[in-house]
Amino acid sequence: MNLPNMIEAKKRDKEVLIVNYDYSDVKIDSSLIGKKFFVRTYGCQMNEHDGEKIKGVLISQGLIECASLEESDLAILNTCAIRENAHDKVFGFMGLVKKMKESKPNLLLGICGCMAQEECVVNEIKSKYKYVDFVFGTHNLDNMINVINERVRSGKQNIEVYSILGNVCEGIPEKRESKYSAWVDIILGCDKFCTYCIVPYTRGTQRSRHYKYIISEVNNLKSLGYKEITLLGQNVNAYGKDLYDDYNLANLLSDVSNTGIERIRFVTSHPWDFTDEMVDVIAKCDNVMPYVHLPIQSGSNRILKLMGRKYTREEYLKLYNKIREKVKGVSITTDIIVGFPGETEEDFQYTLDIVNECKFDGAFTFVFSPREGTPAAKLNDNVSVNEKNKRLYKLNEIVNKYSNESNQKCVNSIMKCLVIGKSEKDNNKYMGYTENMKLVNIVSSIDVIGEIIDVRIDEAKSFSLNGTRIEDC
Length: 473
Ligand code: SAH
Ligand code: SF4
Ligand code: F3S
Prior knowledge:
The structure is a single chain. By secondary structure, this protein is an alpha/beta fold. It folds into three domains: 6-160, Rossmann fold (3-Layer(aba) Sandwich); 170-408, tm_1862 like domain (pyruvate-formate lyase- activating enzyme, Alpha-Beta Horseshoe); 414-472, CATH 2.40.50.140. 33% of the residues lie in helices and 22% in strands. The chain contains 13 helices and 21 strands. The strands form six sheets. A six-stranded parallel beta sheet has the order 3-2-4-5-6-7, with helices on both faces. Helix 8 (249-258) runs parallel beside helix 9 and helix 12 packs parallel to helix 13 (385-408). The longest helix has 24 residues, at 385-408. Iron/sulfur cluster (SF4) binds next to helix 6.
């Protein structure tokens, strides 16, 4: 048994090992071959992509994916720890599995992902949730088959979670959910330690993948017919800092652009590491999409300092304006936290002011959620929950106004959309994304899934657009 430790997780190990995934010696217990598995993933795009790896590994071992928990013999919850409500969802789902186990005692339940890296969560699972069969962390996803085997062999709960592990695994099998748009990890972990955030503890050291592996993955995806790739990292702008003296995100974007893949995206950007050179590459390369997610978190310099964000509102604005000026047709979205401990009415007003100044194309807004083990969770918090919720409501009204305005500007224009499937709202329509990442519900007389098509925008809503394939206008 190996338990996570938040103090160990804060120690940084600069030795990065690049390990090629080799399963020639590892075989899943034969009793599980041909059995059905179900994976439920919560959280960010990186976790979604980890979910694709978990599925890929299980399929490579002879298990079969099924669409529901009810049908499964093995269920894995790939969890998120970013806010308390992410926890609640997982514990709720675990309750469901517990019930199901009453009539299906051989059903195996595993927990992995970011919650599995939290000391408090794992201690709780160990003492109160004995029906959880195995737990593995974000650092030993590559070793999950051994973790499952040990549970089957011993018949006992098996918890294997490591706090520090520098390995960057290459070649883990993946079962990609889309045939047109693919995630590509470029940097794992985060070294920023924003004071409110659990991610550096759950994901570990900032570790870049070697660029040669990234380029070859993109070339491979292109040859498989993928139209779009999204470069992933908690802070993609720090790419390369831990590996190279003279190769960074600007170089990588330029090299990935040269592969000729049609669309390149990247998330998430931290303003601190965003250089002029990067802005120029985004502006210059036609296949690097004009969309930047640039979290601001707060408009108050006092709060930004307490958050450990290492930039001021003035520095943020300078960068923001530079991106707006240089990148034609760019959309910029952001993340904002309200109710950080001690946030005054004046601090909050600074946030509203900067939103009014930037007029973001969209924003994800959150109420501060204290995460055990992070510095901000220890700060004295004199803002009531009621007040925090009121601030969130007020902020959302403004955010939605600008997102609506930004969408209205698209009406009557012709925008290129990558169609990724049928519309979720209306099965007779299709759904795609514009170059600047706006969701469009599209009328088309023919099946256009997987294609990049010209769409005339007919109508704007707050969070989406309606349009018609140009040939159908
Ligand atoms: N690496 C990204 C953010 C990843 S988490 C970045 O730095 O931009 C996504 C968002 O969740 C953050 O941008 C932040 O707005 C929010 N978040 C993170 N921790 C939080 C917490 N403890 N309470 C509320 N929101 C939080
Ligand atoms: Fe969390 Fe900050 Fe790292 Fe983003 S940059 S993952 S908010 S610590
Ligand atoms: Fe959640 Fe972990 Fe992502 S905490 S947001 S799944 S890095």
